[in-house]
């Protein structure tokens, strides 16, 4: 005779196997959920890093705009200085009567042209600077009226003063 208590029922054994398989599937699903949550966290971190990079790129672009304007200021100052020097040098030579010129207004006209070119250069650089910052939306924490921009306007004013002084033969120059 067989003892039924010692032999498990085939239906019970299959039910236990199905229960184990279900537990295993649940554990794998929970693991996949954890992986998905980790990926979401990583994606959020990458988004934050991308926003930081965008912010830094805007700052770098604004600084590049400032460097470009400073280059225009340097160029303009060189043109203003060179034009003024030519005008004054030939004026002193003419006053000392050491130089007889065929065209006495030639150095004056050249000086005026170089000074006018310097004024146009710095104003063009200032306009380019403003347009560049406006295209950024001044998102780099910069004002449209930065120190460099104000200096550019002052250089333009100096150039216009030089221009008027030489052209009209007025003022201290």
What would you say this structure looks like, in words?
By secondary structure, the chain is an all-alpha fold. The chain has one domain (10-168). Helices cover 80% and strands 0% of the residues. It contains 3 helices and no strands. Helix 1 (10-95) packs antiparallel against helix 2 (106-136), helix 1 (10-95) runs parallel beside helix 3 and helix 2 runs antiparallel to helix 3 (147-168). The radius of gyration is 39 Å and the shape is rod-shaped.
Strand and helix map with partners:
Blueprint: H1 10-95, H2 106-136, H3 147-168
Helix coverage percent of residues? over 70%
Count of distinct strands: 0
* Rg, nearest Å: 39 Å
What's the main sheet like? none
Question: Could you tell me the strand content as a percent range?
Answer: under 5%
Cα distance, first to last residue? Answer: 132 Å
Uncertain spans: none
Mean pLDDT: 85
Order of helices and strands: HHH
Indicate the structural class: mainly alpha
Overall form: rod-shaped
Domain count, please report it: 1
Q: Give the helix tally.
A: 3
